[in-house]
């Protein structure tokens, strides 16, 4: 067996104390500013003044609001179940098949990644809990689970899927050690553990990078690895470019790249703008100008300078092209909620950034009037929290209800003249129509 203890000896994996179901913290979300929290508070305050009968003024289809989440859970649970059964061959085949078909959920989440996450979930969650609850004494659980996975890698040495799963587990545990604070505030022992896990992740996938160069799962694992302690500016952009080119229909890597190219992580404002334009050029046949919009999507939510520097016209053209190329309710809800809630509720105090955000928020009007046919409350709820992947949702139904409340409040403002004249807004397949109540 590959001796993981010996591997960590090089980096002096620190001991932690004894005191143990959520996804590990990610750098793309961990650095949300206090300003976003302020925006959330404003949203909560606004909810209190929504008229009780407001929803009576709208008639809009609302498909099962938790369907996407339940579908994702189903794929994750499949991966988790196959690992608990130690059916590694079936797990590898399942992920390979989904990867080959490019299967995505309706919310554009790669199915292969969901199954892979479920496969490492037990180990990662146990390690996260042990690290979170540690004080001074060693917690063996941090290493026990990952050592078990290392045994599997040894027994299936030519399987890149298994290597990716174990490498991703190392990456998740590495981020758990680091936490989501500023780099200067990370204790030395945590930093060393962070670096050790990322180094091991790199060792695991290195033999497959050339032989499986067309694997989106492998490319995504490599992106996650280079976005760690050894990241360099050009290296991160190059890795994301490869991942995007392997699956250009998936907008999530574009969004992640944009955020990681902010100066607070691994890039600069000039590089962010350059890569957004390059991505738009490479994906024009799929997204039109939308590639520029996807790359800037999260970056301008988190960073005032990036927002102030935005090519606003190009960004709005991208919004229109995304909806033209993907005319479906999920996309319409995503962009409407983003413009209205994520951007519209953000007031930073920077005149330049707030001016840009106000114009993006104004796009909610035409997106809703021209493209919205049904309501997806979970998207609106996530938008109110800046699409924070790490948010802990105690009750999906209550979370969805908060999203519906937000959407109704915002749409009441969009249709205030029609409502004031006593009309009811009915959302049809051709968009919203005003009828006499």
How would you characterize the overall build of this protein?
With 437 residues, this protein is mainly α. The protein is 64% helix and 3% strand. The chain has 3 domains: 1-32 and 69-230, no CATH class; 248-321, no CATH class; 327-437, no CATH class. It contains 23 helices and 3 strands. β2 (423-428) and β3 form a beta hairpin. It is globular and about 70 Å long.
What are the defining features of this structure?
disordered N terminus; globular; 437 residues; mainly alpha; 3% strand; 23 helices
Give a brief description.
The chain is mostly helical.
Low-pLDDT stretches are: 1-52
- How are the strands ordered across the major sheet? 1-2-3
| C-alpha-based Rg, rounded | 23 Å
First-residue to last-residue Cα separation: 73 Å
Overall 3D shape: globular
Beta-strand content: under 5%
Helices and strands, in order, run as HHHEHHHHHHHHHHHHHHHHHHHHEE
